[in-house]
Amino acid sequence: MPKRREQHRREPRELGDLPYADHLEPFDGRLSQGGDYDTVLFDGQEFDDADAGGARFMESAFTSVTFTGGRYRRARFSDVWMNGVRWVGGDLTESVWVDAEIVMSAPAGTALPGAEMHQVFFHRCKLDSVNLRAAELREVSFVECTLRDVDFAGATLTGVDFPGSTLERVRFDKARMSRVDLRGAVSLGISDGYDALRGATVSGVQLMELAPMFAHVLGVTVDDG
């Protein structure tokens, strides 16, 4: 466990720092269903309404890439690095993310219900209206990120933390948490699912801020009169 916490604090890597950087080949073509993309460099491309369901991206890098719409159901992203990537919409239902590093990127209106994320590192990303309902997140860090209208309803979060991040109108209803660390979050704007915070760790200050909603969930009336 301590080893993983050190990873959570690490700075993001540059493209040249990737162990497979020297083997990357520039991408030139179209994404396709079930495609295999191994040690590929995606640089500056724009993918509009692509159909790449079941595709596999392995030891690949994405820089300044824009995905607009498209279907990526059950796609697999393994040991990938993304920097400056924009996702506008897009269906990534039940996609799998393993050992992924996502930096300065902005998914907006992106659907990831039922996705699996294991050892994924978000750094200075803006997640806006992202659907992670019933997703499974294990050892995932959101570092200095903004999460606005992100939906974790019914998701399973294990070993997840939010150092330096801002949460705005985030939903956790019926989520299941274990070793979730909220102490480093700059703000906890939770719109639903206060009762699902069982298994999370908060600071004393955060507890005071959350107390009115905890009381409401428990049916406790606070009356100083």
Automatic annotation (TrEMBL):
It comes from the Bacteria. Residues 1-22 are annotated as: Disordered. InterPro entries: 5peptide_repeat, Pentapeptide-BTB/POZ_domain. Residues 8-22 have a biased composition (Basic and acidic residues). Gene3D superfamilies: E3 ubiquitin-protein ligase SopA (2.160.20.80). Pfam families: Pentapeptide_4. This is Uncharacterized protein YjbI, contains pentapeptide repeats. It comes from Microbispora rosea.
